[in-house]
Amino acid sequence: MFRPPETQPTFFVRDIPVYGDAILAPMDGISDWPFRSICRSLGSAMSYTEFVNVQDILNRPRYVKHKLKFEPAERPMVIQLYGDDPKLILEAALRVQELGPDIIDINMGCPAKSVAHRGAGVGLMRTPLKIAHIFRLLSQHLEVPVTGKMRLGWEDCQTYKLVARIVEENGGSLIALHGRTKQQGYSGQARWEAVGEVKSLVKIPVIGSGDVRRVEDIQSIKTQTSCDGVMIGRAAMGNPWVFSRLDRDQVPAEMVRKTVQQHLQKNIEFYGEADGQRLFRKHAIQYLLLQDLDRDTRKEILRPRPAGEFMLLLEQLHTRLAELQA
Ligand SMILES: Cc1cc2nc3c(=O)[nH]c(=O)nc-3n(C[C@H](O)[C@H](O)[C@H](O)COP(=O)(O)O)c2cc1C
Fold it and tell me: pLDDT at position 48, please?
């Protein structure tokens, strides 16, 4: 179903209008420029980079250069940072601000040990006063709005309501909430009612995240929580058309073929032939519904090939899939 672009902003991040309510969630290793640009062209309302380590920005900028690249068509563009030291976060934020993003976001949700256990990502949710310090510093010194993406909290200690208030009181312009604790990781059910609780506590826009899998879920979470926007993460892999309000089983085969081609081309343009192919594998598995095959079989089918042959292979797999589904 074609949805005309919104003519009125759905919400504002401080003074920045956002047209539309469904947004590709930031995902490390997934929401790179090729995938973001596909999703944005299909209706994702704004773009978030993958999270970027503030220490890398300051100490080895070449290593993270590609993560910070974006194109004007992605605007409003959000660069997401993670770190645990307010001064370093500010220093890195000032540096990335020069790249011209519309918004800078602080990650308060990553549960990975290497991040959370040193006090960054969801580790920040255990130190609310530090969050206050970070948002105060950033909102005082940056020209662009500062936003935060968080979880419910660490474990039993669910500080999301306190942290939401702190973000708003210290100059934050938007809160995205993934309704799970650190302990839950990505399992169990996301608690949408927590998104509703935060929405009723703050005046800044709130985005709900977690378990929005099908088109109907977009409206369900909005109705249940009154949130301003919805993030879609894992379900957008293999189905970026969800941003055009199509479930995967509604997407015509020819549309899949065209998008696979475009996405692979963008990957190769961005990463070069070999890395572009290698990094496309995880997307190909989802697009071509190969999830049920075991890891080795998938690896063998999608092994690196000379330029052109990889696309040919994807075309053959696609034709086979279309025949099976007919
Ligand atoms: C592979 C992967 C990487 C992720 N990386 C990030 C990240 O860099 N920054 C962030 O804020 N959230 C990250 N997330 C969390 C998602 O943005 C989202 O909140 C979460 O996956 C729940 O939404 P979903 O059920 O739609 O996937 C990541 C999730 C996954 C699965």
Answer: 98
- 143-170 tens-digit pLDDT: 999 999 999 999 877 999 999 999 999 9
27 CA → ligand 1 middle, Å: 5
pLDDT score at 3: 61
Atom 29 (ligand 1): residue with closest C-alpha?
A: 27
Q: For residue range 276-289, what is the model confidence (pLDDT) as tens digits?
A: 999 999 999 999 98
Average pLDDT over residues 278-304: 88
Query: Which residues share a beta bridge with 47?
Result: 77
Q: Which amino acid is it at 138? A: L
Which of 270-275's residues contact partners 24+ apart within 8 Å by CB, and which partners? 270/32, 270/33, 270/34, 270/66, 270/69, 271/66, 273/307, 274/304
> Which of 23, 24, 28, 175 maximizes ligand 1 atoms within 8 Å of its Cβ, making it the mutation to test the pocket?
28
pLDDT tens digit sequence for 3-27: 667 889 999 999 999 999 999 999 9
Q: Give residue 226's identity as a one-letter amino acid code.
A: S
Task: Express each pLDDT in 66-99 by its tens digit.
Answer: 999 999 999 999 999 999 999 999 999 999 999 9
What does the radius of gyration of the chain's CA atoms come to, in whole angstroms? 20
266 Rama class: left (phi>0) / alpha (psi -120 to 50) / beta: alpha
Among all chains, which residue has been given the structure tokens 């005046």?
A: 203
- Asked if residue 212 has its Cβ within 6 Å of ligand 1, the reply is yes
Cis check for the bond before 76: say yes or no (omega within 30 of 0). Answer: yes
Is 110 an annotated catalytic residue? yes
- Counting every residue written for the chain, the total comes to 326
Quote the pLDDT of residue 7.
Answer: 86
Q: Is the CB of 30 under 6 A from ligand 1?
A: yes
DSSP for 182-197, written as a single string: TTTTT-S---HHHHHH
β-partners of residue 146 are 104
Task: For ligand 1, pick from 81, 122, 178 the residue to mutate: most ligand atoms within 8 Å of CB.
Answer: 178
> How far apart are alpha carbons 197 and 267 in whole angstroms?
40
